[in-house]
Design a protein that fits this description.
The protein has helices spanning 6-29, 59-75, 90-102, 113-122, 151-165, and strands spanning 46-51, 78-83, 107-111, 130-134, 144-146. By secondary structure, it is of the alpha/beta class. The chain has a single domain (46-165), classed as Rossmann fold, CATH 3.40.50.2300. Strands 2-1-3-4-5 form a 5-stranded parallel beta sheet, sandwiched between helices. Helix 2 packs parallel to helix 5 and helix 3 (90-102) crosses helix 4.
């Protein structure tokens, strides 16, 4: 086997340096891939759910929340919920309803008898907010009513309402 001459070694080193330099330059010229966003870019509106003290453990609230989340994924409207803590009375629940109202929710949904009672009591304080009661009581003037039927029906109707508000 014949040894490489000094000239061949220099040419090989220069050739390798040129190839490595060209590859580095090409990689450097490529635009960096835009990383996927780590957060959602929500719209300005927020749909807010008022629940009883069981929160999302309540079956009705689960169906409503599922519909709200689907609408959020489809339209990028923000969704949040607030559970009524303490005595499950209209007087106590109105405080929680008002909290959602002053947070400038574009839509407030009330799931269950106590949250709906709070909405009935205080909805006039927030005339620019769309009010949705999930209840079997259809006698609520000024409030959109979603009948408490099968959970999948409630979920679908809430999805439609929240998506329309986005």
């Amino acid at each position: 086997m014949r040894a490489w001459t000094r000239r061949q070694q220099v040419l090989l080193a220069v050739g390798a340096a040129v190839i490595i330099g060209a590859a580095t330059w090409l990689v450097w010229l490529r635009e960096p891939a835009t990383p996927p966003p780590r957060e959602r870019r929500y719209k300005a509106g927020t749909a807010c759910l008022l629940t009883n003290d069981r929160g999302l453990d309540d079956q009705l609230a689960q169906a409503v929340w599922a519909g709200m989340q689907e609408a959020s994924k489809a339209t990028l409207i923000k969704v949040q919920y607030l559970s009524i803590i303490g005595p499950q009375t209209t007087a106590n629940s109105v405080t929680y309803f008002n909290t959602l109202g002053v947070q400038e929710c574009t839509m407030i949904l009330a799931a269950g008898p106590i949250p709906v009672a709070a909405m009935r009591e205080a909805y006039r304080r927030f005339p620019n907010v769309k009010h949705v009661a999930i209840t079997s009581d259809a006698n609520l003037p000024g409030i959109v009513v979603v009948d408490t039927g099968a959970p999948e029906v409630v979920q679908k109707k809430v999805h439609e309402l929240v998506a329309a508000a986005a």
